[in-house]
Design goal:
By secondary structure, the protein is mainly α. Helices cover 58% and strands 7% of the residues. It has two domains: 78 residues, Chorismate mutase (Chorismate Mutase Domain, subunit A); 72 residues, D-Maltodextrin-Binding Protein, domain 2, CATH 3.40.190.10. α4 links the parallel β1 and β2.
Length: 177
């Protein structure tokens, strides 16, 4: 049995290029709007930072950052065909990290080297807009924080060999604030 062949209109390259250019112009305008909103948000966060500093409060508020993420992700869930939730989480983590850095650049020490599990966990928690300081031992992480050379420290809960498992507990008891 012979198949019926339908006529297909060949694509018009000039029309396609014009359409792509039009959509890209829309994207460019949206990018500028997003940039303005990000900077407006950073300015408002800077005001919050000033108020906190005047009242002796900590700049970094993990509970507030979790609240912001929860609110954003809840709103995000209502958009059909939206970006992946991990993408949205990463974008807002970096927006908050950059805003926080305008208030105070945090110094975070971690069990090195760069891109180790501790370093990646620090990025996940604090974003990229912090000063990361790698150190060679779990004890050194605690010492840096205890001496005031770092604001926060990130250590693994378990590392090979198993003997390192209790080190964070021992250090936290030995280095009270």
């Amino acid at each position: 049995m012979a198949r019926k062949i339908e006529a297909v209109t060949p694509p018009n390259p000039a029309k396609a290029q014009a359409l792509v250019k039009s959509v890209r112009n829309q994207i460019d305008k949206l990018d500028l709007q997003i940039l303005k909103l990000i900077n407006d948000r950073a300015s408002a966060a800077g005001e919050v930072g000033k108020i906190k500093m005047e009242n002796g409060e900590d700049i970094f508020s993990p509970a507030r950052e979790e609240e912001v993420l929860a609110n954003v992700l809840e709103a995000h869930s209502k958009y059909p065909n939206a970006l992946d939730v991990n993408t949205v989480r990463a974008v807002f983590r970096e927006i908050m990290s950059g805003s926080r850095a305008l208030q105070k650049l945090l110094k975070v020490t971690y069990l090195g080297p760069e891109y180790s599990y501790s370093h990646l966990a620090a990025i996940e928690r604090f974003g990229q807009a912090v000063e990361f300081v790698p150190v060679g031992s779990i004890t050194a992480v605690f010492e840096e924080v205890n001496r005031g050379h770092a604001d926060f420290g990130v250590v693994p809960l378990k590392t090979p060999p198993m003997g390192e498992l209790l080190t964070p507990l021992i250090c936290s008891c030995a280095c009270p604030k």
